[in-house]
Amino acid sequence: MNKAETAGVRLQKVLSQAGVASRRAAEDLIARGKVKVNGEPARLGRRVDPAEDVIHVSGKRVITDVETVHYALNKPRGVISTMDDEEGRLSLAEFAKGIDQRVFHVGRLDTDSEGLLLLTNDGDLANRIMHPSHGLPKTYRAQIAGILDKPTYRRLLAGVELDDGPAKADKLKIIDEHAGQSLIEITIHEGRKHIVRRLMDQAGHRVSRLVRTEIGPVRLRNLKPGTVRRLSPDEIGRLYRDVGM
Q: Which of 32, 76, 181, 205 has the lowest CB atom count within 10 Å?
């Protein structure tokens, strides 16, 4: 065991502080070969630097640097997706006041849209989430005008042509139909501007309300509008795994 492995903090303590498991359970994970440090299987007694070493448990990344933070925000309608607005409009900074670290938002929602945004200070993660090559799925609930008939339903899944290229729904579900309107759930994997609204407009159904409910493994759940919550260790691990980190 080299000097780097004997300096720092015991691995089981770091895993416990990260919320992965109790120290005893963490020792069991290490003994069963479920823990890797910097790509190599860890041994009992291993010490790590929480700010530098890359740790995976059962294939999922564990963030042990206490300065790296990840939050989910339920953006209300009427709020612009920026941390600072020169015109004094209500921005995301209003909802990040309780976060000690300086964070930035991952991706955007237009002013009239609501729902899930991620806040973090991990620039590498943010860049990978937003990069189209990783194809992280995003799920929305949309209130649309009209009843979605079967031909249109199939066309949205097959793809329609927009002014900046083809687009399609990866998944599509009709949740409710009432009074000439439909509530649908739609999943797409790209982040072009206003993509859901433009996709539905092209299909002949104007969106009157749009709420993003999922980004990859992170779900909005019962988070109230205008509030934030820390992501769980499992959500963080799955998020890093899904973007190849």
A: 32
